[in-house]
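Figure-free illustration: sequence to structure, shown twice.
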Amino acid sequence: MSVGGGAGDGHRPDEVDVLVIGAGQAGLGTAYWLRRCGIERLLVVDAQPVGQSWLDRWDSLRLFTPHRSSALPGLAFPDGPHRAPSRVEMAPYLSAYAAHPGLPVETGVRISRLTGDPEGLMAWTSTGASLRSAR
């Protein structure tokens, strides 16, 4: 998928029902539940590769909650439920989650501007491409 492509060229459509900005835990979890609620025209965008923000943190970073409490819906953490995940475990977990069938995630996309109107939102990327979102 590529922001800037139109529906006729095999890329994503120029309009979606929901645009989720950020492919971290909140964005990916939100996309999962939106899909489960029947929202089909959905796109998740992020400027960085999925999980990169975790790898950019200090080496000793760990969540304070165990795996069973830190997992996103639909995908358990590997390696047992009782340990708190480290930053090097979070990054590949989020990448695997983003690869879930039906989660349309596009990285390398920085949203530089959002405007609203009665028909929804218009998002512009740092490269000048645009995307309309109904919500």
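We now fold a second protein in the same way, so the two outputs can be compared directly.
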Amino acid sequence: KKEDIKVKTEVKVFENKHEAKVEKANADLAMKKAKWAQNLQMGDVKAKKVVALREAELQKGVEVMNALTQTEKLKAKFLTKASIE
């Protein structure tokens, strides 16, 4: 009878230790998944910022070219007007 209780106790201790290991592994996996999701989200945010920055640079270039074109048109207009007068 004592031997039976001892074996059952050892089995229960083993089961508890095994269950604790499984729970720890599951918790570690959940933490890793959360970290991966966070890294993925950060990558998306960074990529969107890079795209927005590039779009702003291109828009600035377009605006500079438009301003230069307008300046040249005005110069030509005033030059023509000055030539006529």
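Summary for the second example: The radius of gyration is 37 Å.
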